[in-house]
């Protein structure tokens, strides 16, 4: 069945791979981005070239007005069926002792507040009691929530820990609303996020230390996200799917 989904941070990395896979499934995709318009348009173009429907939607997940506008924009594709709360960011490696307050606030703003705003808006628009038709919300957490990311970014790890709590609570709130809420916890995945945190070689360098001995690819995370979005996961809610090579 055709679905319409919104993916925050759909322009690059895990979000991009998810958008392309969902497009191949015949789903219509809202591809949110914050600054990289050409990357978002390339994803939209690739979905269109394969016969699918997609639209690029600019918006910062930390802005409530932007979040409302991005959900309004995706409605042009059809009634909403799913949301992937994926946009996230890290900062430079540091111990907590050396972190500025502003950096900690920013990390929580993007990874936690942004996720809460997008999950709230998705819940509002999918809830059957609010006129929605039910659906699926998938939050992209991180293995950092369980490992703590010492000497790199314990702020990010805590921000993702909050996403795990959100998943548990929101799944319980939405059980009678026809909305499933689940999370994936990626491990070391080969995307731009590591370079943006000043460690371009991080996935490759640390990937070899994982039980499977390698970093993961964004496409491998996309498979888990799309499964949780799909009706194949019809009895899964409040669940966590670790995609981390055993890390
Ligand atoms: P990425 O390659 O750096 O891509 C980040 C995406 O998020 C881009 O599409 C970016 O848009 C978007 N974005 C960033 N800030 C935003 C904001 N304020 N509002 C809206 N969009 C924003 O990252 P990734 O590795 O794919 O990570 C995706 C998710 O997986 C994140 O939540 C991350 O924490 C999580 N994760 C990643 C790993 C990993 O090893 N890669 C591991 C665990 C968890 P632009 O293109 O416009 O900049």
From TrEMBL:
Stored NCBIfam families: PRK06947.1
Protein name: Glucose-1-dehydrogenase
Gene3D superfamilies: NAD(P)-binding Rossmann-like Domain
Origin species: Microvirga aerophila
CDD domains hit by this protein: SDR_c
Top-level taxon in the UniProt lineage: Bacteria
Record carries keyword Phosphoprotein: no
Similarity annotation: Belongs to the short-chain dehydrogenases/reductases (SDR) family.
Residue ranges of the TM segments: none
UniProt keyword annotations, A-Z: Oxidoreductase
Entries under InterPro entries matching the protein: NAD(P)-bd_dom_sf, SDR_fam
Region: Disordered, residue numbers: 191-214
One Gene Ontology term of the molecular function aspect: oxidoreductase activity, acting on CH-OH group of donors
């Amino acid at each position: 069945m055709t679905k319409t989904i919104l993916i925050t941070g759909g322009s690059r990395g895990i979000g991009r791979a998810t958008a392309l896979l969902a497009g191949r499934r015949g789903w219509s995709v809202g591809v949110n981005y914050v600054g990289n318009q050409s990357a978002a348009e390339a994803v939209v173009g690739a979905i269109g070239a394969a016969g699918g429907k997609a639209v690029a939607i600019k918006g910062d997940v930390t802005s409530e007005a932007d979040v409302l506008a991005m959900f309004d924009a995706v409605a042009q594709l059809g009634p909403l069926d799913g949301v992937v709360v994926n946009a996230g960011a890290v900062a430079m490696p540091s111990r907590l002792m050396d972190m500025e307050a502003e950096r900690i606030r920013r990390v929580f703003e993007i990874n936690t507040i942004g996720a809460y705003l997008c999950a709230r808006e998705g819940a509002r628009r999918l809830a059957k009691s609010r006129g929605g038709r039910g659906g699926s919300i998938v939050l992209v957490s991180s293995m950092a929530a369980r490992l703590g990311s010492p000497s790199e970014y314990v702020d990010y790890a805590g921000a993702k820990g909050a996403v795990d709590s959100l998943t548990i609570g929101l799944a319980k709130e939405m059980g009678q609303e026809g909305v499933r809420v689940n999370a994936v916890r990626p491990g070391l995945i080969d995307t731009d996020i590591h370079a943006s945190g000043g460690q371009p070689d991080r996935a490759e360098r640390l990937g070899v230390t994982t039980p499977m001995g390698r970093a993961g690819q964004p496409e491998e995370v996309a498979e888990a996200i799309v499964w949780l979005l799909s009706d194949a996961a019809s009895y899964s809610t409040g669940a966590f799917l670790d995609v981390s090579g055993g890390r």
